[in-house]
Design goal:
This protein has 20 helices and 17 strands. By secondary structure, it is an alpha/beta fold. The chain has an 8-stranded parallel barrel, surrounded by 5 helices. It is globular, with a radius of gyration of 22 Å. The two termini are 40 Å apart. The mean pLDDT is 91.
């Protein structure tokens, strides 16, 4: 329950004053990240199971209702409508994320006993439900073959994941680290720079921030692998799109509003999901990959010096060709050599790729010649295989399922006949080139029981899901092993 707010900055400001808020948007973008962090819950009229709001909220254990077709959101009027009911900014609403129901008013809610124990608000010896929960999961762990990792982007997320029984990080999205405090200013400074020198000066400000985050995650995951994905989203997602924030940014960067608008317009893409993102950014601007590589290896050495058992995995996103992967791998290997020599420490690490494009799955044998692991990004692989935007498909997918066009929402339950066939092909071909190839999935399907059963049958090494879905995945992996 919370007060309806329609702007992420307002959500952050009111939450800082101790108010409970619910962020209401037509849809969220990475630019809204700080508002989601501040809010008790998120409500959107667009999106689906794997949309930005759903993925981020699930990772934080927050309630979210997304893709509510009957919701008419007006950020200008700061209100939303459902039929004849109008809710204005500052009105109390209560969300039920399990059913998708929205209630007017402040309804009393009861926190989960398990979550209270995990969060340290309740002693375990006073929680009989948590004791039973732990016993069942211990039985599951004895049966399952699949490892269960978590998608976690901060040291706090990593600690929650460990508390739920995660056996490592399967996806650490480095872009989420850039949306806080001074980081976003430095990131924007890098984006608007006209030359490599300007970009490197801005990246030099970001490197110690990333290093600190990575070191915290290594510490939280002591003894377990941490899979860090290089920068993935298109750069325009880090820039404001008008309003007071644009004015403030122009002043900070000593630009005119017109200059900033020209830069933002120049970065805007018709179809950013398939545009200048992922490894394409690292190839165009290799200094970005270099900064992230140095931050990862420096963090690893600092953690190891404190006695932390570090297992580094670096993942190159949106690879379509073996040459793209090899280009990025060469930069990372050079970073490792420099850091290991300068800091006097040898670092054990692996470099692999996300398989999230059909071409990557079809040419897995060539990619596996230089990639030490494959992590299947099933969110984007589903989008690119079915030709469906995960943020827009919610408008027609329910009707599709009702009419029998598809047996399930493919963003919730893995499409085994299509996407699953590509995954099977990539695993088999990849292991022909590299018999010891490590494989796993890190999309939202990693926490869905039927999809986990398929991963077990295929012989994947692990699944990775949001921290709060780790218990589900542990249980589902055991059920798959016993089936």
């Amino acid at each position: 329950a919370g007060l309806a707010v329609f702007d992420p900055d307002v959500a952050e400001q009111r939450a800082a004053r101790g108010e409970s808020v619910i962020l209401v948007r037509e849809e969220t973008t990475p630019e809204d990240f700080h508002g989601i962090v501040a809010a008790r819950a998120v409500l959107t009229s667009r999106g689906g199971m794997t949309s930005h709001a759903a993925v981020v909220a699930r990772g934080m254990g927050k309630c979210a209702i997304v893709g509510c077709k009957e919701l008419e959101v007006s950020t200008e009027k700061r209100e939303f409508r459902v039929g004849t009911t109008v809710v204005n900014e500052g009105d109390w609403i209560t969300l039920d994320g399990a059913t998708g129901r929205i209630f007017c008013g402040d309804l009393p809610t009861v926190p989960s006993e398990v979550v209270r124990v995990i969060g340290g608000q309740l002693p375990a010896d006073q929680a009989p439900l948590h004791k039973a929960f732990s016993r069942v999961l211990a039985w599951a762990d004895e049966c399952r073959r699949l490892k269960v990792r978590a998608n976690a982007d901060t040291p706090k997320d990593a600690r929650v994941a460990r508390a739920f029984g995660a056996e490592g990080i399967g996806l650490c999205r480095t872009e989420h680290m850039f949306f806080e405090g001074d980081r976003i200013t430095a990131m924007r400074e890098m984006i608007v720079s006209h030359d490599e020198g300007g970009r490197r000066r801005a990246l030099a400000k970001l490197q110690p921030m990333q290093r600190t985050d990575f070191e915290g995650i290594f510490e939280a995951m002591h003894g377990y692998p941490v899979n860090i994905r290089l920068l993935d989203p298109p750069l325009h997602e880090f820039l404001p799109h008008g309003g007071e924030e644009s004015k403030m940014l122009a002043r900070q960067l000593k630009l005119t509003r017109e200059e900033l608008t020209r830069i933002v317009d120049g970065l805007r893409e018709t179809n950013p999901m398939l545009g200048h993102r992922g490894c394409r950014l690292g190839i165009t601007y290799p200094e970005i990959t270099e900064m992230q590589g140095r931050a990862i290896f420096e963090a690893a050495v600092r953690a190891m010096r404190r006695g932390i058992d570090v297992h580094v995995e670096i993942m190159v996103p949106l690879v379509a060709t073996a040459r793209e992967f090899e280009h990025q791998r060469a930069i990372l290997e050079d970073c490792h050599t420099q850091i290991a020599r300068a800091m006097g420490f040898e670092i054990s690490y692996q470099i692999g790729t996300m398989i999230e494009l059909p071409r990557a799955a079809l040419t897995a044998r060539e990619i596996a010649a230089s990639a030490e692991f494959f992590s299947f990004g099933t969110n984007d692989l589903t989008q690119t295989t079915l030709g469906m935007s995960r943020d827009d498909a919610g408008r027609f997918l329910p009707g599709y399922v009702e009419r029998g066009m598809l047996p399930e929402d493919p963003f919730q339950v893995l499409d085994i006949d299509g996407v699953g066939k590509l995954i099977r092909m990539a695993v088999e071909d990849g292991r022909l080139a590299r018999p010891g190839l490590k494989t796993g999935i890190c999309g939202e399907h990693g926490g869905e029981p039927r999809s986990i059963a398929f991963c077990h049958q295929l012989g994947l090494d692990y699944v990775s899901c949001s921290p709060y879905r780790v218990p589900i995945a542990r249980l589902a992996a055991a059920q798959a092993a016993l089936a």
